[in-house]
């Protein structure tokens, strides 16, 4: 092998060796950004729901003034969701708010005039659409986290991830209490 050929092979080898870490790093950055975007999309949909809830609650309050505990539960859950610091806290607060909303919608069944109120119907439809958007945003987030965490653990990306501090991301999970149907008691 002549000298120019050896030099060319060495240069190609160096480029390949440098290309793998750079490609892995850039891929991890892209996947991490996708996780961040997906998380932000969940926040956007949760905020949309939080913005709809006061209108829905005020509409129901006009008909169901004696259901104060449900209104208080909804307000408390909204506050917890607004103050959630991480994915687990958001999931727990989100589940608590969903449970309170479920109880509110069960209460509505006792007020036939309320169910026929156009404002309530419109808000209910918007809330249902938002709940669907939240479910899709959660799925998209978990897919992004799964792709990121898988890439982060595979060789040679695991070396790059540890060198540059790419941390594992947390999946959006329902809290333990979300598996139970919320109790509704009309005797109070």
Automatic annotation (TrEMBL):
Its main location: membrane. Residues 120-147 form a coiled coil. The keyword Phosphoprotein does not apply. One of its GO terms (cellular component) is membrane. The chain crosses the membrane at residues 7-25. It is found in: Membrane. Keywords: Coiled coil, Membrane, Transmembrane, Transmembrane helix. It comes from the Bacteria. It is a single-pass membrane protein. SUPFAM superfamilies: LemA-like. The keyword ATP-binding does not apply. Belongs to the LemA family. This is Protein LemA. The gene is lemA.
């Amino acid at each position: 092998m002549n000298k120019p050929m050896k030099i060319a092979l060495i240069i190609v080898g160096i480029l390949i060796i440098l290309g793998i870490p750079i490609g892995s790093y850039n891929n991890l950055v892209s996947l991490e950004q996708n996780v961040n975007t997906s998380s932000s999309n969940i926040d956007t949909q949760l905020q949309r729901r939080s913005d709809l809830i006061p209108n829905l609650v005020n509409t129901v309050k006009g008909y169901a003034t004696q259901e104060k505990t449900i209104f208080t539960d909804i307000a408390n859950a909204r506050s917890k969701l607004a103050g959630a610091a991480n994915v687990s806290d958001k999931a727990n607060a989100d589940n608590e708010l969903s449970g309170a909303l479920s109880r509110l919608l069960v209460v509505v069944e006792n007020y036939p005039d309320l169910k026929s109120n156009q404002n309530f119907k419109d808000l209910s439809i918007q809330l249902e659409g938002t709940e669907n958007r939240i479910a899709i945003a959660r799925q998209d987030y978990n897919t992004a986290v799964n792709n990121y965490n898988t890439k982060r653990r595979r060789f040679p990306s695991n070396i790059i991830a540890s060198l540059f501090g790419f941390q594992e991301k947390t999946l959006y999970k329902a809290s333990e209490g979300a598996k139970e149907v919320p109790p509704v008691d009309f005797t109070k």
